[in-house]
Amino acid sequence: MATAVASTEEHPNYLTHETGWKSWAFTLDHKRIGLMYLAAILLAFLAGGIFALLVRTELAFRGETIMGPTWYNKSFTLHGAIMVFLFIIPSIPGALGNFFLPIMLGAKDVAFPRLNLASFYIYLLGAGFLLYSILTNAVDTGWTFYTPYSANSSTSVMSTTLGVFILGFSSILTGVNFVTTIHTMRAPGLHWRRLPLFVWGQYATSVIQVLATPVLAVTVLLLTIEHGFHLGIFDPKLGGDPVLFQHFFWFYSHPAVYIMILPGMAVVNELIATFTRRAIFGYMFVAMSSVSLALLGFLVWGHHMFVAGMSEYSTMVFSALTFLVAIPSGVKVFNWTATLYKGSISFASPMLWALSFLFLFTIGGLTGLFLGTLSVDVHLHDTYFVVAHFHYVMVGGTVMGFVGGLHYWWPKMTGKMYNETLARIAWFLVFIGFNITFMSQFVMGSQGMPRRYWDYLERFRMMHGFSSIGALILGVGFTIMLIMFIMSLKSGKKAPRNPWGSAGFEWNTTTPPHPHNFEATPVIRRGPYDYHLATEEELAST
Amino acid sequence: MKEATVQLPRQMSTLAADIDNMYYFIFWVSVVFFVAIMGAAIWFLIKYRRDKNPQSTPPGHHDVLELFWTFAPLLLLIPMFHFGFRGYVQAMVAPDKALEIRVRGKQWVWDFYYPGDTEATPGELVVPMGKPVKMQMSSLDVLHSFYVPEFRVKRDVVPGMYSSVWFQATAITSKYNKQENKVEGEPLDLFCTEYCGTSHSQMLAKVHVVSPEDYAAFIAGKDVPPEGKPLAEVGAELYKKNACNTCHTVDGSKLVGPSFKGLFGRNESFEDGSTQVVDENYIRQSILQPQAKITKGFGGATMPVFVMKDWKIDALIEYIKSLK
Hints:
The complex is a heterodimer of chains A (542) and B (324). With 542 residues, chain A is mostly helical. Chain A has 16 helices and no strands. In chain A, helix 2 (30-58) runs antiparallel to helix 15, helix 8 (242-276) runs antiparallel to helix 9 (283-296) and helix 11 runs antiparallel to helix 13 (384-414). Chain B is α+β, with helices and mostly antiparallel strands and 324 residues long. Chain B has three domains: 16-92, Helix Hairpins (Orthogonal Bundle); 99-221, Cupredoxins -  blue copper proteins (Immunoglobulin-like); 231-322, Cytochrome Bc1 Complex, Chain D, domain 2. In chain B, helix 5 crosses helix 7 (310-322).
């Protein structure tokens, strides 16, 4: 990896080597596509966040606070649908994966650059359908679209499910592209045991995207057919079976949980390695735990339906398989903790996010044990305990990983540094706000507060109050972060080649990267975390 | 009966103790793991921070350690699975001699049918203490879910199929008042926990646990019209019991259905373009055949059918008349 270590000024970079809107709209450069994805998903995150704040504001007090039940139901549905389909699923693969996966492989681009651009436009089209449905009558079915309610709802169910159908194709195409790229485009010397764990995570994710997403497509298509043409598939009035829909839906949506969390774990590997200057402990076990999570993810969908009317024997099998998920998740947490041992640990802002991931994801994982245990799940199912559990995994896990990765790679992507003090303040507020919001939801959930309630009984008042205060702090934290990144773009200091002194392959290219990533194809002679083998020149910041 | 804790509500059924023991077992396992992992992490973070330890030690791996923490957790996971399944089967399979009460979920009311009933008792469930009770459940429209936190039971109510839960209550919450022909006390809350549309959060019911003697008295007096009470007042009670209030207000504000305030005697326009003055017959028809005439502007919601005895309809009409 001795190539391309030189001062950045003389090098062309992907941001400035071509100009004009056409050079962006028709670009085949994975870095530009990644950046456009980033802009789009951050907008989606903002929209989903606004709906989250609307929900928490309504629930701050008993009775009607700012809206009636109709708009409340639409708000929580839109919060969920936007966050899942437009933000979390495409976030890390679409933005960070697109940008860094080829660079980490020492490749010029992904295997199918045109398909890559197509997947971005398909994403925009799907997002357009969702936006259309919001502007017409919105949708009030919950992001799960359970039948028969969704089959008879007078809201814009059709355009929403069509949007989700279209978004699925974007996800499939990204998955196909990444799998092919990882198999065929690794630089000389980059064998599978040297693959950055970020790439391993993306690989496992892509496999799920390719295999599971078509089932979602089939499901929403059937739903659309039922809704549009009144053909009985899921609606018992027409001769259908509502529980069948739940099987279909979770057959995709449970693997989708791993589409969401595996990339977050993938990012955290890179952060922990860089900021401890140490290889991830048990590299192969961590890599294989991602693959086994991807496989197990296909076998546990029934644990969303323990009280839905399955036979006792089906629930038994699903519960047993669900407990197996704890093993690869535990392997990851144990290995990350062991990596800290004898490291040289820096607390730069990306590492703060990685450590919050470790803290919050562990809570998210452990609370999963309650829900996998059949008898306890009967009490906790569809209460706020479940809401808190999956927010600890999805936000405490994936969003922490995504935001950490964004801080970590921001200098490489934009060529600009950001204000570290503001970054730390934002981190602190998000971390505190998140825990206040969702820890109180664990408590009210185990006390019996049901999900998706516009109003609640007096005995849940205090916990709802805490939760809303936490959400406010969370919102302030993310707003400060947004301001910090905008300030960085406007007036950030110029970023050096390798600001964190990382041994990761992606830091070897210039900042911002060369249009073709490297001037010449690099030859890989060590692993991405071999600090003892990396030259001083490689680890130097410039 | 065990009192409520910070985490869990009161234990009010024979199933609750087992479930709670599992809950606390998992809770303490989680606490121990969390404290151990975070303790180790924080210790490493302090000890190996960069200003103290500028040079990291090259990587290690330790296959025995890896295999240990891959397989050792099974020792805890297997008992969780086993006892969880055992508790689940207990909660799912009702004893043979259980008292059967039929439950019908509809947007957004819980209807209860006691043995032999053809007419529903909405919004209020009365069960005898110390006897196994099985709820035989079905839905008229969309998915609902039957949940009483204190009993630790929950089951989805699915249109097109029957589902059931059972429980045996362990303490009395209420007493039967013979003079008023009413069950009074501090009932438990029954929640709908499967999202069912606009008024999902209002789809609540009360669960009274009474002594077996009081239960028998309640069943005997259930459908006797109250004496010595103004009819409109009886109607006001029925208005709440039948959960009319989830869709129809009495103060003129608009919910899913039209408000009852000033309704009687008004000339109402309907979705099909016809008009009619609201009289006794119109109200009677609207209760028994709600789809016959839909008020203009309220076509989006579907009111379920309410089957009830004439004296109840009389009382409701009298109540609506009184809302000027």
